[in-house]
Specification:
The chain contains 4 helices and 2 strands; from the N terminus they run αββααα. It has 90 residues and is α+β, with helices and mostly antiparallel strands. It has a two-stranded antiparallel ribbon. The N and C termini lie far apart (24 Å).
Amino acid sequence: MSADVHDHGDDPLNDKMFPRPIRLKFAPERERVVRSAWEGLECLGDWPAGQGRQYRAALRSCRDALDGWTPAEKAMRAMIDAAREARILQ
């Protein structure tokens, strides 16, 4: 896991759930479902593709959602944009 995940005290109790799950295709036989800002951060720490502008925006949005500064829906949309940029959105 990256240091970014540990900045939140490894406490999923304060997690912010996404309005709907996001399905990602990490590899032909490996699908990942992201349901919350916490899972988003974990997923971004294990990202199988390039870390471009949308990736960085998703990282920031998931952190902000966990800190209560942005709605979970914004973090979800940022994750979708990052997955599209990486071409791994199901």
